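User: I'm designing a mutation panel for Glycerol uptake operon antiterminator regulatory protein and want to avoid disrupting the core. Could you give me a predicted structure to guide residue selection? Please restate the sequence first so the numbering is unambiguous.

Assistant: Good idea. Sequence first, for numbering, then the predicted C-alpha cells:
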Amino acid sequence: MEIPTGVLPAIRNMKDFERVLETDHHTLVLLETRLSQLKNIVTYAKRAKRKVFIHIDLIQGLRADEYGMEFLLREIKPDGILSTRANVINLAKKNNLLAIQRVFLLDSLSLDNSLRLLERSRPDCIEVLPGLIPSVIEKIHQKSGLPIIAGGLIATEDEITQVIDAGAVAVSTSNKDLWNYAR
C-alpha cells in the first residue's frame, strides 16, 4: 500500500470535490458527506484516476464499526480510511485497506495516550491534529516509526514546509489556497 505524500486535499463539500478533480492531485480525503452520496463520489473520483481516502467517523449515516467497514469494503471500495478508532484501524488492516489513525493532541497526556494507542493498532500511517507543531511531529515519528500526515490549523505554505521538514510525509488540508503548494 502506497502512503500518500505532499498536500492532500480534504473535501468537505461537492464544490470542493469538483474543484480538486480539476487539479493534478492523485489522492483526496473525503471528510464529510452523506452515505447516500458516497458511492457516486468514489466512483466518479476513481473514474478520474484519483485515490480516495474516507474519514469513516465523519460520514453521515455510516457507523464506524465492523458493519460499516464491511459496507465500505464491499460497496464503496475506497483506497484507504481514516479513523480515530483502533477497532476500525484493525478491521481496515485485516482487509488490506490503507489505515490512517487520526490522533488529536491536546496536551502531553493525549500525546502519551496516542503513542500507546499507536503501539496497539499499528496503523499504516498517522494523521496528527493539529499539525502545526513540528517538534511534536518529530517526536511521534521517532517513537512510532510510522509515516505522519499533519492536519488541522495549517494556514500557510511556510507551515507546510515546517511540518514536512519535521518529518511529515504529507499535509491534509481543506484550505483550497494550499492545494497548489509545491516544494
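For picking mutation sites, this is relevant: Helices lie at 14-21, 35-47, 66-76, 86-94, 108-121, 134-144, 157-165. Residues 46 and 74 are 15 Å apart (CA to CA).
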